[in-house]
Amino acid sequence: QIFQPLHTLRNAEKELLPGYHQFEWQPALKNVSSSWDVGIIDGLSGWTSSVDDVPADTIARRFRYDVALVSALKDLEEDIMEGLRERGLDDSTCTSGFTVAVKESCDGMGDVSEKHGSGPAVPEKAVRFSFTIMSISIRADGEEDAVTIFQEQKPNSELSCRPLCLMFVDESDHETLTAILGPVVAERKAMLESRLILSVGGLLRSFRFFFRGTGYDEKMVREMEGLEASGSMYVCTLCDSTRAEASQNMVLHSITRSHGENLERYEIWRTNPFSESADELRDRVKGVSAKPFMETQPTLD
Questions:
Q1: d(CA 198, CA 205)
Q2: Average pLDDT of 281-294?
Q3: Which sequence spans correspond to the domains of the chain?
Q4: What is residue 80's three-state secondary structure?
Q5: pLDDT value at position 150?
Q6: Strands 98-111, 203-216: parallel, antiparallel or unpaired by DSSP?
Q7: What are the residue boundaries of the V(D)J recombination-activating protein 1 DNA-binding domain, all occurrences included (predicted)?
Q8: What backbone torsions phi and psi does residue 172 show, to the nearest 5 degrees?
Q9: pTM
Q10: 147: alpha, beta or left, given left = phi > 0 and alpha = psi -120 to 50?
Q11: How many whole angstroms separate alpha carbon 73 and alpha carbon 63?
C-alpha cells in the first residue's frame, strides 16, 4: 500500500474523513453545483437575487441536499447490509432497484434573539428544515413486490432526524422562506429524475428517492402551500370546506387541495381572469392567497 503515487494516497486519506463519500448521479443533476465534496454552504446559494434588509451571508446555512442524503445512507450502511442478509438476498446481485422514502420536516424554532445583541442584525426567529430516512426497500430482478430492508424504528425521534438547513427567518415570512428553500426544492426536484450511484458494502448500488412532506404542522403547511392562515374560514388544509360546512358534515370530505391545484388557483387570484370583486375572487380560490412554492403531499403523519 505504501508505494503509491501521492494523489492516490491523498484520495485514500480523504475517504477516511467523516462525511466524505464519493458518489455519482445518473443522469447528472440539473441546476445543482458540480463540486460534490462540499460541506456546509451558504443557505442562499442557488438563489440569484439577494434578500433585502439582512446581510444575506448570515441568514442561513445548509448542506447540499444530495450530499446530506449520501451521508445519511452511509450512516445506515450496516443496517442496509444486515437487512439484505435477514431477507436472504444475495448482496452481490442487489446492486440496483433500491428505493428510499424520505420524510421532510420543517418548523419554526421560536425566539433565538441574542441577549446582548452585538452580532449582525438578523431576524430573531429561526426555522429548521430537516429530513428522516423512513425506509429503504429493494425490488429484486424478476420479483413483483419490493422487499423492505430497512425501516426507521423511531421515525419521530430527534436521533433519526437530520437537519438540512438552519435559517434566521420568521416562519410567516413567505418571501424569505421562498428565497432560502427555493434552491432546496430545485435540488429535490432534480433528484426525483435521477438515480444515485453509491458504494454500499463494497459494491456500487443505485438508489431512487421519494419525498413526503409529512413533517409539517398546520401552520407550516398553510405557509408552504400559500393558504390563508389558521383564522381563515377555510378550515382544512386538504379540502375546501368552510367552518360552517365542516360543522354540518364531519364525514364526507374528499382531498381536493393538491399542490398543482393550489398553483392554478394562485394564478386565478393573481390574474383575476373573470374580473370579479375581491369577495367573489376569494370565494373562487377558496382561501389560496400567497404563492405556494413547496410541494406538500396530502398525507397524515
A1: 5
A2: 86
A3: 6-215, 225-285
A4: helix
A5: 96
A6: parallel
A7: 1-23
A8: -90, -5
A9: 0.83
A10: beta
A11: 15
